[in-house]
Amino acid sequence: MKLDWLKKNSSEPQQSNAVLRVIGDRSSGKTTYMASLARWPNADPSSPVQSVIPVNEAGEELITKAQNLLEQGLALEPSNLDASAADVKDYTLRIALKGQFSWKNAKTSIGSQLVNLNISCKDYPGEFFADLLQQTGNPKLQDYLDDCLQATGIMFLVDGNSRRKDLEYVTGLDKFLTALDRSDIMGGKRRISLVMTKCEQSELWVNRHKPAFLAEARFPQVFRKLQTWQQMGAGKVDYFTTSAFGMLGNNFPEPNVTLLSRGRDGIAAVIKDPKRWRPFGLVAPIYWLCTGDRHKELDKG
Ligand SMILES: Nc1nc2c(ncn2[C@@H]2O[C@H](COP(=O)(O)OP(=O)(O)OP(=O)(O)O)[C@@H](O)[C@H]2O)c(=O)[nH]1
Ligand SMILES: [Mg+2]
User: Fold this and answer.
1) Nearest residue CA, atom 27 of ligand 1?
2) Gap from CA of 27 to ligand 1 centroid (Å)
3) Which residue of 33, 100, 194, 213 has the fewest C-beta atoms within 10 A of its own C-beta?
4) Would you call 108 exposed, middle or buried from its count of C-beta atoms within 10 A (0-12, 13-18, 19+)?
5) pLDDT tens digits, residue range 273-284?
6) Residues near 269 by Cβ (< 8 Å), separated by ≥ 6?
7) 19 CA to centre of ligand 1 in angstroms
């Protein structure tokens, strides 16, 4: 595996490596999610995350994007499909978690050792997902599916505000899972996280700590499809809420967002106050994809 050298060079911290793919509809927030993760702005000192470090050039480019666009109150450009699956940028990041809560009682602690999540992650343009739906016969589609087979974890991002697209999503997801299962080399070990994005919006925010409930309420068909997939033993599924932009204020928090548009597809928005930009819920799904365990503190995110 590509990340083997990381293991060798840093024998101290515990390492957890994962090869991830981010999929989802156009504008579901995939690139913004990745760029916000790489930038990791205004870190909360009480967060279990110590740092997020880019390990390759693509990871550094993400930070530049976050600084030049998101932090200037602008949106990222839609990702485009001119690249073949092999050319889609592979962002490699290292997420360092603080020693697992040595302040907690010894039972829940696994020592004060640092934990590194090393991820290499490709963010596909939403066009791939749309092509899955429409079966346009795009020859790149098969490459893309083959490439997803290499992943240990899949993040399926949906804009939490696009509930009317449940049926479209489940149709795309069904095709995606069928293709994965047909040649599954992971033997039921693959994990899929359904990540609802843009959860700073009030109707999502109030239920952010109940992600499975929210997924079932908003995307019932997608939820059922994933549950069935799991019950068949094809792999594991879990649910998460996140916002790349986050909230403003503590007592009466409001979304740190200037809305550009709202429609059936969800919302488009930019950051309102970039100086106070603090995303939430970005690392929880990655931790689960890497380890198979939910991280209580990250879930509080
Ligand atoms: N309110 C809000 N808007 C967001 C968030 N994340 C992304 N957006 C907005 O959603 C829109 C699409 O975001 P992108 O990150 O470009 O979406 P994408 O999934 O990469 O889209 P494609 O590359 O076209 O597949 C932009 O207007 C973003 O600014 C979020 O956490 N909250
Ligand atoms: Mg994109």
Assistant:
1) 268
2) 5
3) 213
4) exposed
5) 999 999 999 999
6) 75, 198, 245, 257, 258, 259, 260
7) 22
Our mutation pick for probing the ligand 1 site, out of 25, 34, 76, counting the most ligand atoms within 8 A of Cβ, is 76
Instruction: Return the residue matching tokens 């760029």.
Output: 35
Cβ of 96: how many Cβ atoms within 10 Å? 17
Indicate the SS3 state at residue 170: helix
Q: Are strands 247-248 and 257-263 parallel, antiparallel or unpaired?
A: unpaired
Yes or no: say if 226 and 237 are a contact pair by the CB < 8 Å rule.
yes
Q: Is 3 exposed, middle or buried (0-12, 13-18, 19+ CB in 10 A)?
A: middle
Q: CB 217: neighbour CB atoms within 10 A?
A: 12
Q: Domains of the chain (ranges plus CATH)?
A: 4-300 (3.40.50.300)
Residue located nearest, by CA, to atom 12 of ligand 1 = 27
- The tokens for 216 are 């079932």
Residue spans of the chain under pLDDT 70:
1-12, 82-83, 100-113, 135-137, 184
Residue identifier of the C-alpha nearest atom 14 of ligand 1: 29
